[in-house]
Structure formats: C-alpha cells, structure tokens
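Support request, please re-run this one:
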Amino acid sequence: MNHKLPRVALAIAGLLLFALTILRAVESWSNDSHLDHVAGIWVAHAIDLTHGTFYRPATGPYGYGVTRYFPLFFCLHALAIKLFGGWRATGYALSTASIVLLLAAVYYLLLRIRASRWLALAGCLAVLAGSSVQGALLTIREDAMAAMLNAWGVAFCAGEDSSPRRLHYAAALFALAFAVKETTIFGVATVCLAFLLSNRTRSALRLLKLTSIGYGLILAGIYFGSGGRAFEVFRLTAATGVGLHSLLLSPSTFVSVMRLDGDLGETILLGLAAASLLTAGTRNVRRIPPLLFLCTLAVTVVIFSSEGIDDNHLIDLHVAAVVLLVDWALRTDLPEFAISASTIACFIVCLALVADAEQGSPDTEPNRAQLEQVVHAIGTVERPILAETPLLPILAGQQPYLLDPFSFRVMVEKKPSLAEPMWQMLRERRFAAVVLLHDPHSDEGREFYASTHFGVEFAERLDRDYELAAIPGRKYLYLPRVQSLTKQGPNDLIGHPAGASTRQK
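Re-run finished. Output below.
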C-alpha cells in the first residue's frame, strides 16, 4: 500500500497538470497572449520564406532583416503554411508537436538509463511542470524543438549500446538541433565526454566526426541558400554584449531571471539536481546524466552573459536537471523519493497556475485584440508601418519593414551607417505610422529604447517628424506630423488623415 500511494498521487498530479496546461493553451492561443515581438520575428521569417526570401539582407528595399536565429524552425513553419495555410494555427501546432515529442524523448531517455515506467512518467511530468516548457507551448518559437531534438540525440546514445546505427541517428539529431538553435551543442559534448571517460574513444570520435559533418552541411546550406546574407547578419548581431565582465556576472543574471520570472518548477528541480550532484562520487559524474547537467549548465551560463536573454533558455537545463534527479534516485535506490518530488513539484505548479488564473493570468492578455485595435486605428494605408513587433504589420497585410528592433540597435552600434535608411524614412515621413510597445518619454521607456530596442537616436528622430496620435490597445501610435493639422486633437489623426498625409508626401 505504501508503494502505491506515491503513484496514485503522481497520477492525480499529472492529470491535474495536463488539464490546467490544456486550459492554459486554449486560453492563451485564443488571445495570442504569449506572442511577443520575438515570436513575431519567427513568424515573419516563415512568411518571408513562403514568398521566396530566405534571410533578408541587413538592410535593403524591403527594410531590415537583422536577426540572430538559425533556420530549421521557421523553414518547417513556412512549409506548414504552404501546406495548410495560415501562420497562427500552423505555428501553434509546431510548438505543440515539439513539446509532445520532447516529453516522449525524456521518457525514452529515462527508460534507457533503466528507470521504471512510473519513474520515467514522473520525469516527464516534472519536465512539463517547468515554466520554460509551459511557455514554449504557448508561443511560436524554436526552444522546444531544439530541446526535443537534443534530448532524442542523447537518448539514442544512452545505455551500453553505441552501435554505428545509433550513432548515425544521434549525429543527425544533434545536427538538426543545431540547425534550430545554434547554442544547442551540449548534447553532443555530453555524449562524447561520456564515451571518452568510459574508454569508448572510437565511438566518441565517430560521433564527433558525423556531427561535425552535419554542422558543416547546415552552415553551408545557410550560406548558399541565403547568398551569404545570413552570415553578414550573424556577424553584426552575434554574441551581443559578451565579455569577461558579463561572463563573470552571468551566474547572478541567471539567478535573477529565474527569481523575477517566478520559475517554480525549474527552481525546485534545479535545487534537487544540484544537491544530488554534490553527493555523487567522481566515478558517477562520468556518466551521461551528470555530464548532461554540467555541460548544459556551462552553456546556459555563457548564454546568460549575452544581452536580451530570458527564461526560455532554461528549458534545456530544466530537462537535464530532471534526468539527473531520476538518475540519482536510481543510484541511491530511492525511486519513490523521485516520484514524490516530481508529484510535489507538479502540485506546487498547479497551485501557482490556479492562483494566477484568479488574480488575472497573463494567458488572458488580449494581445490579438489589442493589435487589431491598432490596425483599425491606422486604417488602410499603402505606405509601410514601422512597428516594434512584426506581428502588427503582418496583421495589417504588410511585409514587416523591421524584423527585430533589438538586433537593429546592436547592428547600428557596430556600424552606424546602416541606420541611415530608417532615419531617412522617418525624416521623409514615409512610414504611415510608427507603433511602439512602451512610452518612449517615460523614464523606463527612454532607458529601454536607448539600451535595448532601436538605440539612442531613435526617440529623438521620431519626435522630429512624428507625434503621438493615440494609445489604442495599450500600444503607442505615432503618425506623421502634418502642418495643416497641428491644431487638431491627436485622435483626429487616426485612420483617414494618416492615409491622406502619406499620399501627399
């Protein structure tokens, strides 16, 4: 009876977590609540590709294509749009499939290290309890797909069987994970180290060679497919702000992000995993689960030394922590403890989700309706809309002029002349409207636009030729200054006057 109780509790916690997750997803998807400007960048890339453009140049006739992202996710999204139509449903379906396959990969990996089915199920639920995993389900971006491919690659190499066939599968999966997210290199590093430390040098070298060939093919495909444009953009935006100082501060940045974002699932399981690692002997650290945690932790800390990093980058470390905790339970013959810990983590996360729903969950944020309000306020215009989120011009039926305001700021800091086309567009009032997510005249807004999005010159140049017309959908709508209309109220500039003023220029 005592052995059944943890399993019954786990089943209840799992059913509750799955139910709340489904409810969250339905609520969030109906509102696009978690589609921020980063998700908009991924959607814009996919739509560009459906029109035959694989990576825009840094600047050109269609605007700015600066981005830091590798292509596999948006290539699959573009294919889904071509096959099924509509970017929204296909994007959410791609994120959902990635999460489902990630849970399947974790389950298979835990079975490969000889966990029981109940313990493997507990590990899957613990993974689902992570806010980084939950967040990946609610948006349209690459994190879950990269984590899923990496986990499958490690799973094929776990256990004693390292046949050439398995190594080929693993190398292909590691290469595909790299094609989704260029920082996903800790899986192959983990397996190669484990092979070397267990005197399987030939297998380690074979896997390293095969994966390196895969990496080379992917980089060649990006280079030749984009005509070299992608590499020029990567050069301008890669490793933003990384230096010795930021590397030294990255652990505190990592902790601060977890604390500010309230990552309960990650906090509980990372703490337990770290504690279990401290009790492991030198021989046990040579195995895949501890090495996966250490390699993922090392790469994650380096990632957090860069600018613009959020808790979505915790997803791989969260998976590695769960795998390590299950492995510790197996080594110490305490599977019931791991099942109970996973159950407790699930219940705590469920309680947090219910509390958020009662207090006004971010899943109910009407982001789609707000953007549609802005589009309606602008009216039908022929000239481009400059928006902080690419989703707004997409909803207006336009090709976004700017994909990523963060990368624009980074690029311009390295090469100021690249900003001139946008400054000229602002001077000549050739944008039908400019839409911002924050007030550029507040203290917080001034700091944000100077140090994060657009750069220090943007707000000043905007104010010269554009003025705040309204705040529809809690977005800041700027329209061109028109001399003959300066005596009218700001709300009089909505809709038709914007179109009329742009046609006169």
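Residues 484-505 have pLDDT under 50 and may be disordered. The chain is about 65% helix and 5% strand.
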